[in-house]
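pasting for the record
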Amino acid sequence: MRNKRIDLLVLDADGDEWMCRWRRLSETFAIDHLRSPMFLHVDPAERGGLLGFAHKTAREHELVSLTDCIGKEVSKHRCQKK
């Protein structure tokens, strides 16, 4: 399978920098971390992609465990870390 180059244009009415509106709103509402469970991270190739990235780049300390979250994600991710 060939790797196809994706030609994509992103328009942001708030400015000419990447994710300008998202950054502005994050600052406005003092959002330091995204609070979605890791299993909701969008990665079409691998569901545990965010966790794998954190381990590969030694950024596990940035992951925050969510309590009262649906499913068994915590135990699944602990198993992947081993």
